[in-house]
Amino acid sequence: MTEATPPDSGGNAEDRAERERLQRLGESYSTSPYYRKIWLSDSQASRLMGDRKWLLIDAVLRGDDVSLRSARILDLGVGSGTDSSRFETLNARPECYVGLDFLEVFAREARRSNPWMSTMVGDAGCLPFPDGTFNLVYQSTMLSSVLGADRRERIFREIARVLAPGGVFLSYDTRYPNPWNPHTRPLRSAELRRAFPGWRVKAWSLTAIPQLQRALAPYSPAACRLLEAIPLLRSHLVVLARRA
Q1: Domains of the chain, with CATH numbers?
Q2: How far, in Å, CA of 55 to CA of 81, rounded?
Q3: Cut 0.90: pTM above it
Q4: Parallel, antiparallel, or unpaired: how do β-strands 234-242 and 163-174 relate?
């Protein structure tokens, strides 16, 4: 594993304040018993939501002829590495997969969970990679934690910079405000279309409101499926943006 201090990407005082807020937020997530509990991958609700999410992602990648066998992949905001193990089952090559996180504690945890992968500490707004390095950049609920519009735009520019021609940005994130978590802002498909002009952008809604699923899953997984069948109750989006 490569370890480094997140680079100082400069910027004005507002941008520095946003980076410091993200640092504090990530640290609070990593130590909070509440967030640890609700994000446990072995809870019934987490398994249900994760399985549905990755069934759709697999179908989306296949439908767009994205082969992971030869793809160089960057996982932005890798967290504990739960999604990394899913990429492994979809035949991602270990030597072509990099997980990056703002916090060292998450980069280390992802590496412990997935010894096959490389992880590093870094800032998504100042990626330490040459232009055109990756065929696929992936993020899951990382961008919704970025509240500042300028910082989001900087991250979008960095994603576009490190993607090779024909490369794909794959995103899974919230489309509704979360009243239980004021530290997030939705990431809607319209914002991604503006961020990547001229790219082909497709979006699919999924994931019934997680709080409802956590309450229902221990008693009736079928009820969770019924909730997800109602479009207005789907709280997240999978978005695929493909560079021309």
Answers
A1: 13-242 (3.40.50.150)
A2: 18
A3: no
A4: antiparallel
